[in-house]
From TrEMBL:
<dbReference type="Pfam" id="PF22700">
    <property type="entry name" value="MVD-like_N"/>
</dbReference>
<keyword id="KW-0547">Nucleotide-binding</keyword>
<protein>
    <recommendedName>
        <fullName>Diphosphomevalonate decarboxylase</fullName>
    </recommendedName>
</protein>
<feature type="domain" description="Diphosphomevalonate decarboxylase-like N-terminal">
    <location>
        <begin position="11"/>
        <end position="168"/>
    </location>
</feature>
<dbReference type="Pfam" id="PF18376">
    <property type="entry name" value="MDD_C"/>
</dbReference>
<feature type="domain" description="Mvd1 C-terminal">
    <location>
        <begin position="197"/>
        <end position="329"/>
    </location>
</feature>
<dbReference type="InterPro" id="IPR014721">
    <property type="entry name" value="Ribsml_uS5_D2-typ_fold_subgr"/>
</dbReference>
<dbReference type="InterPro" id="IPR020568">
    <property type="entry name" value="Ribosomal_Su5_D2-typ_SF"/>
</dbReference>
<keyword id="KW-0444">Lipid biosynthesis</keyword>
<dbReference type="InterPro" id="IPR053859">
    <property type="entry name" value="MVD-like_N"/>
</dbReference>
<dbReference type="InterPro" id="IPR036554">
    <property type="entry name" value="GHMP_kinase_C_sf"/>
</dbReference>
<dbReference type="InterPro" id="IPR041431">
    <property type="entry name" value="Mvd1_C"/>
</dbReference>
<keyword id="KW-0456">Lyase</keyword>
<keyword id="KW-0067">ATP-binding</keyword>
<keyword id="KW-0443">Lipid metabolism</keyword>
<dbReference type="InterPro" id="IPR005935">
    <property type="entry name" value="Mev_decarb"/>
</dbReference>
């Protein structure tokens, strides 16, 4: 038997309408939509060497060092995929993964790394079995597998803007995989939108997203939240098609604050925002009102602030960040083209 190799880069994404709350197995309680980023990437390669052990045999290197913690997670995931990839028992997988964003920068790497892993697995599958699906089916399956490994990762396999979850008005939407939003349905202002990530705290989150999703099961406002998210997603997609900045900003900021208000009102409650996060939110609103530049913020499950703005205002916004917020590390990212198959 031959040795095979597959390498992919895959980006992180930032949700505009948040997925928060799920049903088994990784079925989102409400649909979500995210920008795919361009600079915050994972690069992952798998070398598959013939192996006769008839077990799932993985060596996992993160940034060139063997990492047992990640390995255990990956072996657990792969063991649920033996029916789909029976060849997993015939190979020793040597996986190397690294991120282009600094370790502990506060940017979640599960979306980028889990999508890169599943894209690489599917590329290996093509080479090992000789079965080559159409590109559309390849990415749909990559999204489905990535979603099972880490919910929001399912959206990272597509460029620019991707939705995940059933949406009444969209026929081919699904809870099982994400779908790309067609470029013609997105005003050009959003095609190269900027996301400057202001790092308030680079440490690990005190409460994992897994625990956060679970707390939604008993949350007193869960049903209202899911209904509001569906409503917000519908109006956001229309606003993004029409280039309606007012509604875009209104929805995106409401979603960020509602995500955190869900955390603050769950039982038990918890708070991931820091005083600096709140200060930045105030300053961003003030800058928007005074400068008439349509900046807005969104926030992931952590204290860091994503500052979103049109590319035409890059110089002004980045100069403001440098002059007024020099104390924070900032990662200047923007909307990107999605994963890339690396051939060497
Ligand atoms: O993919 P998970 O299980 O880490 O959950 C992601 C949750 C948020 O990042 C807060 C929202 C989202 O839709 O990405």
């Amino acid at each position: 038997m031959d040795t095979f190799k597959a390498s992919w880069t895959s980006p992180s994404n930032i949700a505009l309408v948040k997925y928060w709350g799920k049903y088994p197995v990784q079925i989102p309680a409400n649909p979500s939509v995210s920008f795919t980023l361009s600079k915050s990437l994972s690069k992952l390669s798998i070398i598959a060497e013939p192996d006769s052990s008839k077990e799932i045999n993985v060596d996992f290197y993160f940034e060139n060092e063997l990492n047992e913690k990640f390995k255990v997670k990956i072996v657990k995931f792969l063991s649920t995929k033996l029916e789909r990839f029976p060849w997993l028992l015939d190979f020793h997988l040597i996986i190397h993964s690294e991120n282009t964003f600094p370790h502990s920068s506060g940017i979640a790497s599960s979306a980028s790394s889990m999508s890169a892993l599943n894209l690489a697995l599917l590329s290996l599958d093509q080479d090992i079995t000789g079965h080559k699906p159409q590109a559309e089916d390849f990415f749909k399956e990559a999204s489905d597998l990535s979603r099972q490994a880490s919910g929001s990762a399912g959206r990272s396999v597509y460029p620019m803007l991707a939705t995940w979850g059933e949406i009444d008005s969209i026929m081919d939407s699904s809870n099982f995989y994400a779908r790309p939003v067609d470029k013609k349905d997105v005003d050009p202002i959003f095609h190269n939108y900027c996301d400057s990530i202001i790092i308030v705290d680079a440490g690990e989150k005190s409460v994992s997203s897994r625990a956060g999703h679970t707390l939604m099961e008993t949350h007193p406002f869960a049903e209202q939240r899911y209904a509001r998210a569906r409503f917000n997603l519908a109006r956001l997609l229309v606003a993004m098609k029409d280039g309606d900045m007012k509604t875009f900003i209104e929805v995106v900021e409401e979603e960020a604050l509602m995500l955190h208000s869900m955390m603050m009102t769950s039982i038990p409650s918890y708070i991931l925002l820091k005083p600096e996060s709140l200060m930045l939110i105030e300053k961003i609103k003030e800058f928007r009102n005074v400068q008439k530049i349509p900046v807005c913020f969104t926030i992931d499950a952590g204290p860091n602030i994503h500052l979103l703005y049109p590319a035409e205002h890059k110089a002004a916004v980045q100069a403001w960040l440098a002059s007024d917020f020099g104390q924070f590390k900032v990662i200047h990212d923007e909307v990107g083209n999605g994963p890339e198959h690396l051939k060497d």
